[in-house]
User: What shape does this take?
Amino acid sequence: MTPVRPKFELKPGKATREAFGKALAELGRENPDVVVCDADLSKSTFTALFAKEFPERFFSCGIAEANMVSIGAGLASAGKTAFVSSFSAFVLNKGFEQLRVTVAYPRVNLKIVGTHSGISIGEDGPSQMSVEDLSLACSLAGFVVLSPADEVATEALVRAAAAYDGPVFLRCGRVKAPLIYSPGETFSIGGSRELIGGSEITIAATGLLVAEAIRAAETLEAEGVSARVLDLYSIKPLDQEAIVRAARETGAIVVAEEHLVDSGLGVRVAQAVARTHPCVMEFVGIQDTYAESGTPEELLDKYGLVARDVAAACRRALTRKRGAGLQ
Amino acid sequence: MIGAAKSGHPGGSLSAVEILVTLFFDFMRHDPANPAWPDRDRFILSKGHAAPVLYAVLAEAGYTPKPALMSLRKLGSPYQGHPDKRFIPALEASTGSLGVGLSVGLGLALAARLNHRPWRTYVVLGDGEIQEGQIWEAAMFGAFHKVDNLVAIVDYNKIQLDGFVSDIMEIAPVAAKWSAFGWHTIELDGHDLSALRAAFAEAEATKGRPTVIVAHTIKGKGVSFMENNPKFHGTAPTPAEVQAALQELQA
Ligand SMILES: Cc1ncc(C[n+]2csc(CCOP(=O)(O)OP(=O)(O)O)c2C)c(N)n1
Assistant: This one.
């Protein structure tokens, strides 16, 4: 039975990178130990807001992301609440060795915020697009990896990251993200949010794909399918409990992410499901390829990351579920 | 082009016009009718965001279609936001992530030497770009392995993305750094065509070490309201600004 629920309303919202910059400046006001490093992208990452207010606590690193990561590691090791930021593609890819040996391995309390993640950056094209950041960040032992869907979640998770003692990677995007949450809602490391209740299938999404998952669930509802929507904003650690419950109660899970499909959230959810309560699964993400230039909307459409694709994956999963005689 | 795309990097494209024009129309041995000619000189725009100047030159030379220039950054255009070998096979490298092009160029140049081929390699770097550590790893490598068939050109326009280089991360003294790394170093006005021509000739005559040309340039050169204005690093001109700019450039 489809439970009665209010229609979900998606409102226009800010880009998560902008919400990050705003939250960072607020943190700066509250805590004199907050320090920030950026690599010649402060206008794009919005760390410029912090830099303007606290120039003495902002370190311009030039176009030298690897160096920046280890400078941040030093600041953090000495007790500062240190954030380093650039595009995800640059801070993770250029700084990966430094993240491994100067942050993850010694378990340094550094916060890494990557903006312009995914292909929705649009016209700049693949060299600036990050499609492997979740995979890279999750492969750093001991890292917390967060991927907020809107500005409210971003602000809350920037705070959660700052309060947490240990390395954190936070993934932000370039484009305006639909507003999903109301101010004051809570988010925690290792948590998730059920946005729509449902009994026949679960769509577990992260980042920009959460809004697409909501739209897909509404399409499915019109077709008489009751789809649950989970926002898995904590990629690592995962909310195992919510995932296992989804597997048990709905018997089918579709994971949706703006990331390479073979190495992102999907494989992590599949592992959690395989360990506990195997069920039918489908995956929406970027296939084994690099994208190209185009508008964000064109690219999300072309690379199969819109509600239509999420709904199609759900229909495939439901067909398999029924074929297997599962309820 | 950038105006029609509504995004892109005008400033760093305009500062490198004379450098690319001299190379493609005066100096490099290449054949647009035969882009895969094995003995062609190699060119890498390591500061890939200046793609518009490269595209204009490639189209003028006949490698790629001119009318499509107005499709810059649009879905399916050969003129991608950053140079992309998948869309323009004549490119030697896909660039856009700063700091990697010089190393690729050194690899190409080593291959020419190994194969006893005469072709030479040219790599254009941004001044902000040389803040990347890999540039200096490459600089050390180039001198150590005596890669004298490669020329690096630093487009020294004194501005990067967030502002003036001297406010973001000072790189001076640029020429002295390259000299200390063992490179033959030439400093010149990067908008002076005859100086550029002479420098490329001097580089070709220099044996036993690579050459770097430190080209002092003006970001946004030729368009008064773009010149030395950090805003036009990565901001497209409005339609009115495009008109004004084209008038100035044609004057
Ligand atoms: C590794 C990397 N970090 C950051 C960027 C973002 N970015 C694009 S252009 C630019 C500034 C480049 O400055 P410069 O090399 O001086 O180029 P120019 O002024 O000639 O345009 C930056 C930081 C990038 N493309 N690659």
